[in-house]
Amino acid sequence: MDEFQIPRIRMVEKLRGHYKIADERVLDVMNRLPRHHFVPEALKSQAYKDNALPIAGGQTISQPFIVARMTELLELTGKERVLEIGAGSGYQSAVLASLARKIFAVERIPNLAKEALEKLRKLGFQNVSVRNADGTNGWEVYAPFEAILVAAGGPSVPEPLLQQLEVGGMLVIPIGDNQKTQTLVRVIRTEKGFESSDFGPCAFVPLIGEHGWK
Q1: Whole-prediction pTM value?
Q2: Of these residues, 45, 62, 98, 197, which one is catalytic?
């Protein structure tokens, strides 16, 4: 037990009751993971609140609801190789790594990539690789992926990510015409092409890169 156990339980109760997150595996992982380990020291007391928090490099650690919803939409079974774009604090990587076989996370800000990997290793995660690069190009050497999660908002789905998605695989990404608001979209690759579904409004930091915002 740690000092954050009660706020963590409350966070999960809100995810289940208010936000209707139904995947009990996702809820169980978020009930166990020390989210406070991934936020700046000065914000530790706010780690389990229902909002995004600032981290280094002008980035954020996503609101717990968004982490849970995006993870749930990937329908992970434990066998997947997952590409994560925008490792940020490493918290989303830790959630994914608890539910899938192997995570390949790309982060464009060097010190964030380094710190995320350090935090993940400290918590015992050995199934996450973190690379400092332009996430909009994906990580082709390890493709194809059964699941792709993009934790930043782009103007459209980057073409390299679509090409690196396995047939039957799912990609979750916020997309929008401007950098302030987006729509959460899930794309499923089929034998014939790509099918996308809309899961409502959201707000993310912009997806910067060759196939994102300049």
Answers
A1: 0.97
A2: 62
